[in-house]
Amino acid sequence: MKKFVAYLMVAILVFSSAYASVCNTNEKSSILQSWQEDWGNYEWGEDPQVNQYYVVETNGALRDMLRSCDITGLEQIFHRLGKDEIISFQRAEGSYLDIVLQEDINPLVVRFLLDNEIIVFKDLNPIDYKQLTTQKLQEAKTKGDSKAVENYEKIIKLLQEYKAK
């Protein structure tokens, strides 16, 4: 059992370091910086239209961070806004996991969403996400996109790991 845990830890380290090179994990986040300039000091107010702009703009920034694998920006905005507020944004405009699984996304993004439990299932359970990812994997195989195939295979493993927790 100890050997298994040791091998698992090494595999996670190798996996993380291989993908960290294509993700922003230690630089300043230009997406976050832009969002902070526009909305960083915003507090919910009486004007529902301005509140809606805040939700739309914040969701846009979060989605851009997910798509560009801006882990630094995601971590900072997660700590700033908190889990509950980010989940409420998804209820307003759709699940981030649904969005990222539609694209060839870096598995570190999926791990970030799962590890921080910022997922809205909307009547879905993890097996539905696995089915969606499997479908996307088959599409990538049909297209011959080896990078997408590799990413979707890793995402399926992450979803299985998450389901086991």
UniProtKB/TrEMBL annotation:
Is the Signal keyword given for this protein?
A: yes
Traced from the root, the source organism's taxonomic lineage reads: Bacteria, Pseudomonadati, Campylobacterota, Epsilonproteobacteria, Campylobacterales
- Organism of derivation: Helicobacter bilis ATCC 43879
- Leader sequence range is 1-20
UniProt keyword annotations, A-Z: Signal
Protein name per Swiss-Prot or TrEMBL: Bypass of forespore C C-terminal domain-containing protein
